[in-house]
Every structure is written in structure tokens, then in C-alpha cells.
């Protein structure tokens, strides 16, 4: 198998390795590691960072524009593979009090900022945001927009569970300026769906796609998962065949993370129910080949996009950025999160809210901000965060850019850089580039292990890697 990870003709000479070599590389680099939606990663944050630290950071925040995230934690049924922060309930009456609290949380944060900031990005995730009924979704959007007015070209996205998406929900979202929709598809094989307790029909998905597109949605994303119980290469290829008929603009192909210390639900799977590491790898490799063969571009960190999609264009133009929502084009100067488990990012601070929905509600009811951990970044953290982001988003790190940004030479800051990256260069995953390094198309599969090279905390904490899922 020889696959172009990018369909750009300029890259045609750059192939990912033959299967046996690819297998060897994956075995070498697939140990546990962070996904780097933040640096330093959450386990390094401190419970000593609390509401007053966040309030002070908000008061000092000079961000002109903001990205916003709202976490809606409710789901009606438990999918047994799920490791998300969610609350299973069939009681829809909890939505009203939840929205009351979101309104109070938004008001507290906006008041702490002290002046109006423009909304350039809004993402609603969960859980299942469309657990909320149409009028409740409408109220949620109005609550946020009232304090953070959206720019005309704001990127507004929502995660939707296709099993319970109503056409009127789509109509409302598009009328309220939403332009991105992400459907949680995961797998369309019946045996797999049975095993993960999540049943969705391709016909339903097709109807929703059609409606969303007619209403003007762009950048429609499907989430898929490989490595689930009952999956094999043929079954997942059949799922991909059905997905490709609908041709979503973006596909996020995540590896199932077996993290039973986080998710009790996953304890229903025995090890023997899961694909062996070799089969998991075969499913993954065949999926990459299929998606790239069908014209999708591999952006890295599990994300594929059609070449004409704004994410792929931004990747070409080195405008791609990354925050807690994953890869994005539009990102504000600060990220403000609302709802249980929400993570906010200011210039030099991270702050996370109480994860448990009831504990989060209690904190709001007491009149405070629900922050339970966070971090103020050191200069070293800021520089390494910059390097990791450059690697994940632009696929390169430049000596010059680093020196211009921080006023110090890259190798002065990280003296062992060339030695530490030498193995990746020898394996064809990185190449020297104008005093820095550029990720090769093959290296895009190994962005997480590459980024780990810059993680100072992994080097000082022996058990740190074990907190994470497999990197490939
Ligand atoms: S996978 Fe999604 S819909 Fe299923 S329980 Fe988890 S958050 Fe809810």
C-alpha cells in the first residue's frame, strides 16, 4: 500500500511507508500520550487555582475577540464506549434549571471581563446538545449572544446526535447563524452498534445531511471511531462506504480509547471483545488508504477534510489553529467555556469547571464561578505550547519564527533539540527545514509522539504517560 496523505501534487513523491514499515513505526511510536488540546496538559494543572484566580485573570484579560464553548452534559442513553463527561437522564425537565445556571455563569464571566468582547467562534458540545428541545436550544444561543455578540462571519458549530436530531432543530440552528454541524456517527455496522449500544441508520443520516446542506451548513463533520468491539477491516470499510456516499466535508477518525479508570461504562467490554492491536492497526491503515484514495486530505491528529473545505485550505495556508475544540480556522484571543467540565484558556491561564453536573450546579447556586483547577503558565510553558501548536497545526517549527516571537534562539531554549528529534528524522517523519523542522506526510500520523518531545512534564513525571490513551 502506498498512500498520499495529501493530494497536493507537490507532495506526490512523499508517501507513507509500506504496511510492514508502517506497522513497525506504529509499534515504535504508539505508546500512551496526550492529545495536546492544551499544553501543559490537564493532569499538570493545580486544584489551588480557583475561582478567584480565574476572576482576576478575566479582569486583566485584554482579548478583543473570544471563542466560546458550552458543554451540555445530558444524554438519554449511555453508549458503552463513551468516556465523555455526560449525565444519562430521560428527564427533560432538568433543561430549564440548567439553562438558568448557564445564564448566571455567562453573566459572571462577562461581568468579570468588564467590557464587551466579540464572539468569533461558538461551539456547543456534550453530552448531546440536542438533548435540548428546539426552544431550549434557542434560549441557550440567545443567552450566549446577548453577552458576547457574534461577528457576522463567526464560526458557529454544534455536535448533534443523529438519532435525535429534529429538522426543526437544524432550521433553528441555521437561522441563528450556525454554519458547522458535527454528527456523531461512530460506526454503521449493526453488530458493532449492538456492542456499543448505539443504533443509528444511514438513511436517517442521509436525510439529515441533505437537510443541513440545503439550509446552508458547511464543514459538516462525521465523527467515526476505529478499534471498537466487533469491528474488523471489512466491517469498517463497509461503514466507510456508506459514509463516503454522503461525502461529509470533514471526518474525525478517532481511535477508541480504552480508559476504564475514567469510564465505568467501558468495563462492560472485556479485552477479548476488542480488536487485537494488529487488527486495530489494520482497520486504521485501511481507513486512511480509503479516505485519502477518495480525495480527503489528512490534516493530522485524526482529522480529514476535503480539499475545498475551509480546514484543508487553512492547513495549506498555515492558518490552522487548535484549541480545546480541536482544529479550527476561527479562533478568538481567548477561549471561554461554560457548563460542567468546561475549560477556558486565556493568554496565560487555563481554568476548568467542576466536571460533575450536580456539583457544577451547586457552585453556580452558591453564586460563585465553578472553577476547580487551573494553571498560570510560566514562560517555559508558553514557549513549549507555541512549539507544540506549530507542530500540530503548521506541521513545522522554524528557528526564525521562534526567535522573532520570543527573542531567543530555539536551540538556546532547547539545547538537545536536534538529538531528541534525530530519531524522527531517521524514520522519515521529520525533515530539516531552514534551521527548523518540517513534518513529512508520513509524520502527520505521528504528531502526538512528535509533540511529546517538547513536553517538559512528561520528562519529569515517570507515570505521566500512563494517564493517556495510545497515540496511534
Ligand atoms: S457517546 Fe455521545 S451520545 Fe453516547 S453517551 Fe457519550 S456523550 Fe452521550
Please explain how this structure is put together:
The structure is a single chain. The model is unreliable at 1-14 (pLDDT under 50). This protein has a 9-stranded mixed β-sheet with strand order 9-10-8-7-6-5-4-1-13, sandwiched between helices. Strands 14-15-16 form a 3-stranded antiparallel β-sheet, covered by helices on one side. Helices cover 38% and strands 20% of the residues. α3 runs parallel beside α4 (134-147) and α8 runs parallel beside α9 (277-293). The chain is of the alpha/beta class and 472 residues long. It folds into 2 domains: 9-30 and 379-467, Orthogonal Bundle (Arc Repressor Mutant, subunit A); 42-334, pyruvate-formate lyase- activating enzyme, CATH 3.80.30.20. A hairpin with a 3-residue loop joins β14 (343-345) and β15 (349-353). It binds iron/sulfur cluster. Residues 75, 78-79, 82, 84, 86, 126-128, 161, 184 line the site of iron/sulfur cluster.
Amino acid at each position: 500500500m502506498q498512500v498520499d496523505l495529501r493530494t497536493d501534487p507537490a507532495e506526490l513523491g512523499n508517501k507513507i511507508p509500506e504496511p510492514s514499515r508502517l506497522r513497525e513505526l506504529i509499534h515504535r511510536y504508539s505508546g500512551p500520550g496526550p492529545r495536546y488540546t492544551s499544553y501543559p496538559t490537564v493532569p499538570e494543572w493545580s486544584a489551588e487555582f480557583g475561582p478567584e484566580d480565574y476572576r482576576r485573570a478575566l479582569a486583566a484579560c485584554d482579548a478583543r475577540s473570544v471563542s466560546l464553548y458550552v458543554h451540555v452534559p445530558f444524554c438519554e442513553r449511555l453508549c458503552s464506549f463513551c468516556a465523555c463527561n455526560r449525565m444519562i437522564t430521560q428527564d427533560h425537565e432538568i433543561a430549564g434549571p440548567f439553562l438558568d445556571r448557564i445564564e448566571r455563569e455567562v453573566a459572571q464571566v462577562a461581568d468579570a471581563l468588564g467590557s464587551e468582547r466579540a464572539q468569533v467562534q461558538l461551539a456547543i458540545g456534550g453530552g448531546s446538545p440536542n438533548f435540548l428541545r428546539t426552544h431550549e436550544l434557542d434560549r441557550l444561543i440567545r443567552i450566549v449572544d446577548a453577552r458576547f455578540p457574534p461577528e457576522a462571519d463567526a464560526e458557529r458549530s454544534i455536535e448533534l446526535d443523529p438519532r435525535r436530531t429534529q429538522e426543526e432543530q437544524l432550521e433553528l440552528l441555521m437561522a441563528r447563524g450556525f454554519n458547522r454541524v458535527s454528527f456523531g456517527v461512530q460506526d454503521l455496522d449493526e453488530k458493532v452498534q449492538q456492542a456499543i449500544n448505539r443504533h443509528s441508520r444511514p438513511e436517517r443520516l442521509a436525510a439529515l445531511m441533505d437537510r443541513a446542506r440545503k439550509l446552508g451548513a458547511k464543514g459538516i463533520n462525521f465523527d467515526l471511531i476505529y478499534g471498537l468491539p466487533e469491528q474488523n477491516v471489512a466491517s469498517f470499510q463497509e461503514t466507510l462506504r456508506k459514509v463516503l456516499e454522503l461525502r461529509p466535508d470533514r471526518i474525525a477518525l478517532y481511535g477508541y480509547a480504552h480508559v476504564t479508570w475514567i469510564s465505568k461504562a467501558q468495563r462492560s467490554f472485556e479485552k477479548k471483545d476488542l480488536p487485537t492491536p494488529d487488527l486495530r492497526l489494520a482497520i486504521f491503515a485501511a481507513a486512511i488508504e480509503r479516505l485519502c484514495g477518495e480525495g480527503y486530505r489528512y490534516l493530522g491528529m485524526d482529522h480529514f477534510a476535503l480539499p475545498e473545505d475551509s480546514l484543508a485550505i487553512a492547513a495549506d495556508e498555515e492558518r490552522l489553529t487548535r484549541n480545546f475544540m480541536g482544529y479550527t480556522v476561527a479562533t478568538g484571543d481567548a477561549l471561554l467555556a461554560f457548563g460542567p467540565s468546561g475549560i477556558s484558556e486565556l493568554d496565560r491561564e487555563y481554568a476548568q469547571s467542576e466536571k460533575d453536573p450536580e456539583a457544577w450546579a451547586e457552585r453556580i447556586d452558591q453564586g460563585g464561578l465553578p472553577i476547580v483547577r487551573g494553571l498560570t503558565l510560566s514562560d517555559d510553558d508558553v514557549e513549549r505550547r507555541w512549539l507544540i501548536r506549530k507542530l500540530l497545526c503548521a506541521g513545522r517549527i522554524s528557528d526564525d519564527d521562534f526567535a522573532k516571537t520570543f527573542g531567543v534562539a530555539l536551540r538556546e531554549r532547547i539545547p538537545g533539540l536536534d538529538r531528541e528529534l534525530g530519531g524522527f528524522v531517521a524514520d522519515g517523519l521529520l525533515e530539516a527545514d531552514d534551521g527548523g523542522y518540517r513534518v513529512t506526510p508520513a509524520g502527520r500520523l505521528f504528531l502526538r509522539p512528535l509533540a511529546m518531545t517538547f513536553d517538559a512534564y512528561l520528562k519529569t513525571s515517570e507515570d505521566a504517560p500512563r494517564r493517556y490513551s495510545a497515540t496511534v
